[in-house]
Design goal:
The complex is a heterodimer of chains A (about 300) and B (about 375). Chain A is α/β, with parallel strands linked by helices and about 300 residues long. Chain A is built from 11 helices and 8 strands. Chain B folds into 2 domains: about 1-240, 3-Layer(aba) Sandwich (Rossmann fold), CATH 3.40.50; about 250-380, Rossmann fold (3-Layer(aba) Sandwich). Helices cover about 40% and strands about 20% of the residues of chain B. Chain B is built from 12 helices and 16 strands. Chain B has helices at about 5-15, 30-45, 55-70, 80-95, 120-125, 140-155, 180-185, 215-240, 265-280, 300-305, 325-335, 360-370, and strands spanning about 1-5, 20-25, 50-55, 75-80, 100-105, 130-135, 160-165, 170-175, 205, 250, 260-265, 285-290, 290-295, 310-315, 345-350, 380. In chain B, strands 3-2-4-5-7-6-13 form a 7-stranded mixed sheet, sandwiched between helices. Chain B has a 6-stranded mixed sheet with strand order 10-12-11-14-15-16, with helices on both faces. Chain B has a two-stranded antiparallel ribbon with strand order 1-8. The chains are: A alpha/beta (about 300), B alpha/beta (about 375). At the A-B interface, strand 1, strand 2, helix 3 and helix 5 of A face strand 3, helix 3, helix 4 and strand 9 of B.
Chain lengths: ~300, ~375
């Protein structure tokens, strides 16, 4: 038996396509997400990145950590650059190559939303993955519309933290009635991988929203990345679920008991200024959103 | 095949015979007829291409960039506000060295809303690394699309083919539409050597530090330098196959002329009639039509204008705070030249689609003939104040 081989069937592909030596910060959740994604999609894949952490993480010219063709594109164009690559490949008869747009939350929730909506409405045959670290981390932790209520960022200082909730992006995509959209977490790699596989085998527009903590921007120790990502799911601050055809919802993590939100919030410096009443407010909102999500699950059960 | 077609449809036929593989576009007046005809061609199976109906011009060019990066021949068309919205991707296409051809119907910029012709939309893209061609008739529009791909695919810079709103876009003229098989002889299939390829994976457009960014830009300029020779060479090659002649510039009755009128696009074709009537009156005048704006035809401009008494430049555009843009470029071309330089008069005319009639052109010539030298850099033609 060679090293790495086991008797049981592995649920996570063994081949490492992403190479070491990238420029990610310590404990970067976005690099973990990329590693899993490439394991599933393999080398018959083309990527496009808009401006985001990964446009730095991948390395300066002429280096690259992803080992597949990669086209860097402008901030608001990830979805359409991917669509353009797709139509180019289709026109050349290369239909078996996967095309993936890989973008941060700012490039997705904010500046990129128009092109994403266009690609989703046309049902372009691409996969869009947003790795969500809940702010503009590459430019130095400015708030985005993915930043949660109450969080500190460099543009939402502690005496005036973010006063609006995180945008429900998957819901916007679902409203386009696309074949597949899902949330996932780097703390649940098997679930993430299943979703990636499902997206790989689905024709048309797919979007996966993967939660990827950022120790630098969230002011937390880098060894807590996976723990915090797991707590986000266990508290239901970031539920993992999938939506087929924009209407059929399914929860992928639904235990009997949930963890209170303060266990998640207290580990991160970006929430340090919050008071007991703020924890209660966040907890109430989580309950409300959970109820709403469950209603959607029930609709077409 | 000889056919009576609108300027916009001449673009569509140019795309058809160039065997374009991907089209992405967003509607804007007066460009719409280009893409409407193309969607019919694709729907009917006349043109084997993928047409993506995008949600903005910004995306139209971003899509073409994606398709071109994997080796497909890509096309888009726009006008005015649409081109302005594309501007970020205009830089991206040339910086990524992708041989995309874009048809721009020259239309004035808002506000106030104006759908008629002037050149401030495309001339605002002057410093982006795109080649620019200004057409005088529908035949040239069609031919320039074909030649655009031929040149772009050699120098790896994109081409913008410009045609005047309405004066060409919505005007029907006799156009020879060449057979696809004949065009095949001139324009081989697009084979991009360096492209997105799963068998040879690289990243494109990655971080470039001050240590290497400048070299990429040096290479773009090198390609522009090379483009001038290739445009001339491919113009000759085109003439051999199709019998029509194109270069960087066109001269009309310049032999023995003391005064040269310099114009572009459809003003130049109107000016030919003016030249004929002025010559009939015994005035030694000729026309220099600038066809290619980038790369700028410095050699031709100097060759034609040196030792002439006067050059009269008509600009359907303006660089606020300076002058007409062609005027400025022509003046600049002479600065380091020794010899008998012409007095250069710069007229601004026809903004926002105001007609530039043969009479208006004759008035400009009269005005320049009365003066020894221009008193200022801008002389307005026909402003009602």
């Amino acid at each position: 038996m060679v090293r790495g081989e086991t008797m049981s069937k592995l649920t996570i592909p063994q081949e490492e396509i992403m190479s070491s030596g990238h420029l990610g910060c310590q404990g970067c959740g976005a690099t973990i997400a990329m590693r899993y994604m490439l394991k599933v999609f393999g080398r018959k894949t083309m990527l496009t990145f808009p401006a985001c952490c990964w446009s730095v993480i991948d390395g300066p010219w002429p280096y690259s950590a992803v080992s597949v063709p990669l086209f860097h594109t402008a901030f608001e164009t990830a979805a359409i650059a991917a669509s353009g690559i797709r139509s180019g490949l289709d026109a050349l008869g290369k239909k078996d190559i996967n095309v993936i747009a890989w973008a941060g939350d700012g490039g997705t929730f904010d500046i990129g939303i128009q092109a994403i909506s266009g690609a989703a409405e046309r049902n372009d045959n691409i996969l869009y993955i947003v790795y969500d670290n809940e702010a503009y981390m590459n430019t130095g932790i400015q708030r985005s519309s993915a930043t949660p209520w109450g969080a500190w960022t460099t543009t939402t200082p502690v005496n005036n933290p973010k006063s609006r909730p995180k945008k429900d992006f998957v819901e916007i995509i679902a409203a386009h009635r696309v074949p597949y959209t899902a949330t996932a977490s780097i703390a649940y790699p098997e679930d993430f991988i299943k979703k990636l596989e499902k997206a790989k085998n689905t024709e048309g527009f797919k979007l996966i929203h993967v939660f990827a903590p950022c120790p630098t921007g969230w002011k937390m120790p880098p060894d807590l990345t996976v723990k915090i990502a797991r707590l986000a799911v266990q508290t239901r601050i970031f539920p993992v679920y999938e939506v087929e055809n924009g209407v059929s919802y399914k929860l992928n993590f639904n235990p009997k008991k949930f963890v209170p939100v303060d266990e998640y919030l207290k580990l991160q410096g970006r929430f340090r200024h919050l008071k007991e009443k703020d924890y209660r407010f966040i907890q109430e909102n989580v309950e409300y959103e959970w109820k709403f999500l469950n209603r959607k699950v029930e609709t077409f059960k | 095949m000889e056919k009576v077609v609108l300027g916009n449809h001449a673009v569509s036929y140019g795309v058809l015979v160039s065997r374009v593989q991907t089209i992405s576009a967003y509607p804007i007046t007066p460009q719409t007829l280009i893409v409407e005809r193309l969607s019919e061609m694709v729907a009917d199976g006349e043109l084997d291409a993928i047409f993506t109906k995008v949600e903005s011009e910004h995306s139209a060019l971003a899509s073409a960039i994606g398709s071109s990066s994997v080796g497909a021949r890509a096309f888009t068309a726009t006008s005015s506000q649409g081109l302005a919205l594309m501007h970020e991707m205009i830089h991206w296409a040339s910086g990524a060295r992708l041989p995309i051809v874009l048809a721009n119907v020259n239309r004035a910029m808002a506000p106030g809303w104006n759908i008629w012709t002037d050149q401030n939309d495309s001339l605002s893209c002057r410093d982006t690394g795109w080649m620019q061609i200004y057409c005088q008739n529908n035949q040239e529009v069609l031919d320039s699309i074909i030649m655009g791909y031929k040149v772009s695919e050699q120098v790896l810079l994109p081409t913008m083919v410009c045609l005047d709103a309405f004066v060409l876009s919505h005007t029907a003229e006799n156009v020879d539409i060449p057979e696809v098989k004949l065009v095949d002889k001139y324009l081989p299939p697009y084979k991009l050597e360096i492209k997105m390829d799963i068998d040879d994976p690289h990243s494109f457009g990655a971080l470039s530090s001050p240590e290497n960014y400048m070299e990429f830009r040096y290479k773009m300029q090198e390609a522009m330098d090379k483009a001038e020779d290739i445009i001339i060479k491919e113009g000759k090659e085109f003439e051999k196959i199709f019998g029509r002649k194109y270069g960087m510039v066109e001269e009309y009755r310049t032999e023995g002329a003391e005064i040269i009128l310099v114009a572009t696009a459809t003003i130049a074709s109107t000016a030919k009639a003016s030249i004929d009537s002025l010559r009939a009156k015994g005035i030694n005048i000729g026309l220099l039509r600038l066809r290619v704006f980038r790369p700028f035809p410095v050699k031709d401009v100097v060759r034609v204008l040196l030792n002439k008494k006067k050059a009269i430049v008509i600009d359907r555009n303006i660089s606020y705070g300076k002058s007409g843009i062609f005027f400025d470029e022509i003046k600049g071309a002479f600065y380091n030249i020794e010899g008998d330089k012409p007095k250069i008069f710069g007229y601004i005319a026809g903004l926002g689609g105001r007609d530039v009639t043969p009479e208006a052109i004759s008035d400009m010539v009269d005005d320049a003939m009365r003066k020894d030298k221009p008193e200022k850099d801008i002389i307005w033609s026909g402003v009602k104040l």
